[in-house]
Amino acid sequence: MSLAKVGIIGASGFTGKTLAGILLGHKSVELQVLNSESNEGKLVSEIYPEFTGSGLKFTNYSLDEIGKKNLNLVFLAMPDGNAKNIAIELIEKGIKVIDLSKDFRFSEKAVYGLPEFFSEEIKKAKLVANPGCYATACLLASKPLDETGGIKHFIFDCKSGVSGAGKKPSNVNNFNSLSENILAYKLTNHKHLPEIGQFLKGNVSFTPHVIPAIQGIMCTLHVIFEKKVDAKEVKKLYEKFYSEKEFVKILGSSLPELHGVQKSNYCHIGGFEVDESNQMVIVSTIDNLFKGAAGQAIQNMNLMLGFNENEGLLKWKKN
Amino acid sequence: MSLAKVGIIGASGFTGKTLAGILLGHKSVELQVLNSESNEGKLVSEIYPEFTGSGLKFTNYSLDEIGKKNLNLVFLAMPDGNAKNIAIELIEKGIKVIDLSKDFRFSEKAVYGLPEFFSEEIKKAKLVANPGCYATACLLASKPLDETGGIKHFIFDCKSGVSGAGKKPSNVNNFNSLSENILAYKLTNHKHLPEIGQFLKGNVSFTPHVIPAIQGIMCTLHVIFEKKVDAKEVKKLYEKFYSEKEFVKILGSSLPELHGVQKSNYCHIGGFEVDESNQMVIVSTIDNLFKGAAGQAIQNMNLMLGFNENEGLLKWKKN
Amino acid sequence: MSLAKVGIIGASGFTGKTLAGILLGHKSVELQVLNSESNEGKLVSEIYPEFTGSGLKFTNYSLDEIGKKNLNLVFLAMPDGNAKNIAIELIEKGIKVIDLSKDFRFSEKAVYGLPEFFSEEIKKAKLVANPGCYATACLLASKPLDETGGIKHFIFDCKSGVSGAGKKPSNVNNFNSLSENILAYKLTNHKHLPEIGQFLKGNVSFTPHVIPAIQGIMCTLHVIFEKKVDAKEVKKLYEKFYSEKEFVKILGSSLPELHGVQKSNYCHIGGFEVDESNQMVIVSTIDNLFKGAAGQAIQNMNLMLGFNENEGLLKWKKN
Amino acid sequence: MSLAKVGIIGASGFTGKTLAGILLGHKSVELQVLNSESNEGKLVSEIYPEFTGSGLKFTNYSLDEIGKKNLNLVFLAMPDGNAKNIAIELIEKGIKVIDLSKDFRFSEKAVYGLPEFFSEEIKKAKLVANPGCYATACLLASKPLDETGGIKHFIFDCKSGVSGAGKKPSNVNNFNSLSENILAYKLTNHKHLPEIGQFLKGNVSFTPHVIPAIQGIMCTLHVIFEKKVDAKEVKKLYEKFYSEKEFVKILGSSLPELHGVQKSNYCHIGGFEVDESNQMVIVSTIDNLFKGAAGQAIQNMNLMLGFNENEGLLKWKKN
After folding, report:
1. Statement to judge: residues B112 and B141 lie in one domain
2. What is the value of pTM for the model shown?
3. Is A52 on the interface with C (CB under 8 A)?
4. Is residue D316 situated within a structural domain?
5. E-assigned strands of chain A?
6. What are the tens digits of pLDDT across the range D18-57?
7. What DSSP letter does each residue of B263-319 carry, written as one string?
8. What are the chain B neighbours of A224 within 8 Å (beta carbons)?
């Protein structure tokens, strides 16, 4: 069977290189375009030494050139605001698009790419808006509660590795500023708050922090219920809700940690403890670059191109 | 003027060695007892290389021997449960006691040693229960709100460096487990919850996490108000409340971080942002071993022995 | 084609779990024995959360039981000293053995399992002594110099992540001791010194350090030549020496770092700079748990069982 | 007694702020000038949160204005190359100068400011060239060997925290690049090599590395002797050499680590082990910002202004 042809625009950022890494091991696609304006012609390994031996090079094709390559799908891994026109132009050329910026997350032109909730829509989509990393961790941790009702307040207190802030050297990702530290930021007005809020009923608050780690997000969800709630029932609800979802695991007695999900497309959910004030704590973890970005984008690609949803994303061979 | 004589029992833990370090620079006291059962006779520098050159050695005096040394005050820096009898015995010998375990934090025999709130009582006390590290960060961040009323829920989501879990090697403080990770634990039933709750009106929830850092606690307080609240007014209230308190700083536009308070007795408080659901976020940071343990204990000692409250704890000479 | 059957004894350590992780993705084998005395019946994910969803459980079969399972090969991942008798017994049962301890590294009963040098011997071996992690990094960095002659002294100054010291909590792997630190140890008498020395001509010195990182070794080799040496010629020599070796990459202008090799079986070599005192610096990096232990063991297994040497170890599909 | 007046030019870098921090606690001086071109008028705490409460602000006086302030001494903490003219101009105005760049380290106009070797010259100097951080660690570790003779080669393999690379965000100090990594650089041609070499007899090689830590340098010195050498005698030689030097400690059985010296002006030296090839390993550690820069500069200032050499630099009060 012939391979699907795909490309990445904005390939030199963390999301782009994570996409490239996964695609190099994906059996049903070949990577034809690896666009990075500023790195054209360079070996990827010059920037990311883990690519040594791959031979992979950055390209810088124009949209016209891309149009002639018969690509099936393009990933846009550019800064917020840059994808709008490019996405439309590619779609007009008959190429499916997965945009990893926030540009289409509130748009009716795109399907919101959280495959655990919207897989049917994604299968038919020409344009998918890949969710934000925080939004992914928060929504996976909270969405099943829609069925319970009686929720007064969702408070998402999130902790992220610093790769979420991008590759460009700054005061935030400076080792001198971050090691032996933790940084709270955008306490009440982060761009991911409305992205989460649009899918939940009830009050929603969201506060992010950067921790001294590279990759991974922990979402500590504090849910305030109107009245007494049965923790075991809630846990069962989650187990049922995600029973058919390969990439979401409801943990037994242990709590989710970053080590469980790093460099994988999995989301771990656990906790489900309630205190006397009817506050329940649910904890979820993902890798912000995988399930929170590139991994999820591949999962969306698999659905859009008719492959097995898990292809290229499993840690182990199927038994 | 003759120096006050003090001692530490349980001196080889992180709290004990931090106490010793501060006392070596304190002008009004001399350290006479540095008891560590398991390290008697050893140089402190064998365990803590930053003590090289101090000449300081661990002792192992009996309570009887300690009784004959005319000590003014003893710090108990032992595991929870061990201090109860020793404290009483020392007080009977006429020695004032500051206990850093949780043993007397709910007891009428002791004064709760949070000097920003209870300095008058501490001045007269024979036995002070030094607060827990989390409780200190949480109470300093929340107590002024007592004056506002209309609080429905305090949710304290705390992040601590791993020194809070003690010095003994374990799976929690193993570098292999903690680096590039974050661990949530005791989501709703931590021993510090009732310690915090006893001083606040309203629902109180508390969830701690361990981050890959040695020293420092960040408390992210999510307060849910019954109705619209004016963030600027709340901030003014805090500024007034702590205006005479040397060790609590209300930050201007920047947010508290661990780097601001590490190896010092200061607490930084900031944030005061409100979202549309009347949820306000207030952030506080302390060093768990200083303001959260040993530094606060020295502050209490200063009050109990009639010294300037700040002695031995200022970072710079007074201008 | 039927799969080869393999087992791991001592499976709960870092080396054992890394072996298990690779084997779960290896197409030509099935993992039948995963012995851990202390964890029999437990899910591997209870200890290593990244195994969540694998369903893998620790076993504790006796050697007799193992003998009846028709295994083709067993990995011994036990502490030094424990493998001697077990290896012999397994071989007598007709099972090939790869021992990852130091027990057979100086023994004529075993082939030294550095496939870049001894692949022909390994293919025929019943018992392979898998090299030490430091020895692997040092020998790959130095062995091609045998051809140049005129070497007065090899000084290997190595820096290792702390996983090399094992999983058991200790003062060395305590986050409180290691973060923001570096530890030199066994300055001149490490057990890996003779292991390296047996394969090199000239004086050999070796000094290891533990750095605040989990995985990876950097070997900084200082070679003192008797007379002027041409750096470019030396580099060419290395390129030729390793031209057919998939897992050893001679870097261009960049220097090896841990990020280039972590969680992979690759060794990166670079540097080749000479100063005025005829001292050349060559730098190599490996992942101590992969090329320094489990990955190399799989490479040896592939040779011993007649598979492609690279199977299960490539980061990407072959183009 | 009136206080000496001092200033810092280039105050917003790591060296400048460390100088400011020490000077705020120094009893014999007052800090009158804290020049930072780009931060004039800002509170120091806006950049360094640990200065919260100090009230300290950056200034931007011209050299003329500085000339009228009757300063006794100015520290130049500017990038290499910028100090040359400024230093001369200040000296002409009758102000003593300590330059922390490399500009005068090879110049006859200045005294090399390593007080353990040149205290008499420093006392009389108008211009002191403060040594490089690596040079300090290396020279303190090696200089006493001048007396032994028979040294063929000094190989300094150094490991530094990343603050040595300065405060400006870059690919080197990016947390994403440095965490779980170690970087070798300038393997044979670092600017500190001639700085070290000018004071030693014998071949000198020097290779630096950056480790994932903020502050501290470890120098692992490999000395190759011409013939058999007695380790105990060498150690005794060091103990005698430094017996009167407060800030250099020869350790007993333990090895130097960064934790022993961080945020202090001390240098720890230990090791003194020899192997069969007459290679001895000596390990030294300093804090690159203290003994390697600002602390040593204060030590030089104390000598130049006639204060006690240790003033403002001791960790504890004198007993």
Report:
1. no
2. 0.97
3. yes
4. no
5. 4-9, 29-35, 73-76, 96-99, 111-112, 127-129, 151-160, 183-184, 203-210, 217-225, 248-250, 267-274, 279-286
6. 999 999 999 999 999 999 999 999 999 999 999 999 999 9
7. TSS-EEEEEEEE-TTSEEEEEEEE-TTIIIIIHHHHHHHHHHTTS-TTTTT-SS---
8. 153, 224
Tell me the C-alpha distance between C92 and A300, whole Å.
Answer: 52
Q: By three-state DSSP, how is residue D293 classified? A: helix
Asked if C218 and D203 come within 8 Å (Cβ–Cβ), the reply is no
State the CB neighbour count (10 A cutoff) for residue C201: 11
- So what's the pLDDT on residue D191? 85
Residues B67 and B153 in one domain: no
Specify the pLDDT at position C295: 98
Examine the pLDDT at D230 and tell me if it is beyond 80.
yes
- Of the pLDDT bands very low, low, confident and very high (cuts 50, 70, 90), residue D319 is very low
**In terms of residue numbers, what domain contains C234?**
133-286
The C-alpha atoms of residue C192 and residue C132 are separated, in whole angstroms, by: 7
Q: What share of chain B is helix, strand, coil (3-state, %, to 5)?
A: 30, 25, 45
Kindly state whether A173 is in contact with chain D, defined as any CB-CB distance less than 8 angstroms.
Answer: yes
Within an 8 Å CB–CB cutoff, is residue D253 touching chain C? Answer: no
Q: How far apart are the first and last CA of chain C?
A: 24
Kindly report the CATH number assigned to the domain that includes residue D93.
3.40.50.720
Q: Name the residue with tokens 């219920």.
A: A225
- Whether A314 maps to a domain, the answer reads no
Closest to D45 (Cα-Cα) out of B243, B260, B255:
B260
Helix, strand, coil abundance in chain D, percent, nearest 5? 35, 25, 45
d(CA D223, CA C128): 36
- DSSP E strands in chain B: the ranges are 4-9, 29-35, 73-76, 96-99, 111-112, 127-129, 151-160, 183-184, 203-210, 217-225, 248-250, 267-274, 279-286
Tell me: do A148 and A258 sit in the same domain. Answer: yes
* C254 & C194 share domain: yes
Overall domain count for chain C: 2
Q: Residue B277: give its domain's CATH number.
A: 3.30.360.10
Q: Do A159 and A123 share a structural domain?
A: no
pLDDT recorded at residue C319: 43
Q: Do residues A217 and A158 make contact, with C-beta atoms less than 8 angstroms apart?
A: yes
Q: How many angstroms away from the CA of D183 is the closest CA of chain C?
A: 6
Sheet holding A248-250, edge to edge: A183-184, A203-210, A151-160, A217-225, A279-286, A267-274, A248-250
Give, in degrees to the nearest 5, the angle at Cα C166 between C164 and C169.
Answer: 130
Of the CA atoms within 13 Å of residue B70, those in its CB half-sphere come to 5
Which pLDDT tens digit goes with each residue over A173-225? 999 999 999 999 999 988 889 999 999 999 999 999 999 999 999 999 999 99
A142 shares a domain with A207: yes
Q: How far apart are CA D217 and CA D136, in angstroms?
A: 10
Mean local confidence (pLDDT), B126-148: 96
pLDDT digits (tens, 9 = 90+) for D144-156: 998 888 888 999 9
- In this predicted complex, what is the ipTM? 0.96
Tokens representing C303 are 């040779």
Give CA–CA dist D127/B229, Å, rounded: 60
Are D120 and D221 contained in the same domain?
Answer: no
Taking CB atoms and an 8 Å limit, are D257 and B49 in contact across chains?
Answer: yes
- What is the model's pLDDT at position D318? 52
DSSP state of D258: G
Report pLDDT for B318. 52
Within-domain flag for B314: no
Residues C144 and C271 in one domain: yes
Quick one: tokens of C228?
């002027």
For residues A91 and A229, what is the distance between their CA atoms, to the nearest angstrom? 47
Question: Number of Cβ pairs closer than 8 Å across B and D?
Answer: 76
Q: Is B173 on the interface with C (CB under 8 A)?
A: yes
What was the pLDDT predicted at D260? 98
Strands B279-286 and B267-274: antiparallel
d(CA A217, CA D10): 38
